[in-house]
Recover the amino acids of this structure.
């Protein structure tokens, strides 16, 4: 009976491990971050009309961090490989004198892997359309890293951790 328990436990563990994907796929693309809303919520903000990035990124931004990103952001400095930052962008709707969340526009992801993404400061970038896992970034070096480059002193990250 004890041996059966060990075998069943081991099989269940292996099945769970096979379902867990790391932040970077074997093809060098950034994976969709399943269950990211259970991660640490670092902060939120709203980009309104008049902001330089409103046309592309207007709406409510929620920033989520996996454990590696959280530790690095709290300490400041560089992020370790395996750190993942999620930028969840939703429409901002005005209802009854309040700004509320509308439909999801995009899930943006930064995943740190200094070997795979050496040309972009160690970060891989991807965007997933609305509530799908459809990739929308065609050239991360131009589309994402070009904008993040001025943040080199902060390891290319705009957000800071809000206690």
């Amino acid at each position: 009976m004890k041996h059966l328990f060990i075998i069943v436990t081991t099989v269940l563990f292996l099945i769970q491990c096979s379902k867990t994907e790391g932040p970077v796929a074997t093809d060098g693309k950034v994976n969709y971050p399943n269950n990211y809303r259970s991660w640490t919520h670092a902060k939120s903000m709203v980009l309104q009309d008049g902001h330089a990035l409103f046309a592309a990124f207007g709406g409510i931004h929620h920033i989520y961090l996996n454990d590696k990103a959280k530790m690095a952001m709290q300490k400041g400095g560089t992020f370790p490989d395996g750190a993942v930052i999620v930028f969840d962008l939703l429409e901002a709707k005005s209802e009854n004198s309040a700004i509320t969340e509308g439909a999801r526009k995009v899930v943006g992801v930064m995943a740190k892997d200094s070997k795979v993404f050496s040309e972009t400061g160690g970060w891989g970038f991807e965007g997933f359309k609305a509530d799908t896992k459809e990739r929308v970034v065609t050239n991360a070096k131009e589309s994402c890293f070009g904008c993040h480059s001025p943040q080199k002193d902060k390891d290319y990250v705009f957000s800071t951790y809000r206690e």
Q: What stands out?
A: The two ends are 49 Å apart (CA to CA). The helical segments are 2-19, 54-57, 67-75, 140-148. The CA atoms of residues 73 and 160 lie 7 Å apart.
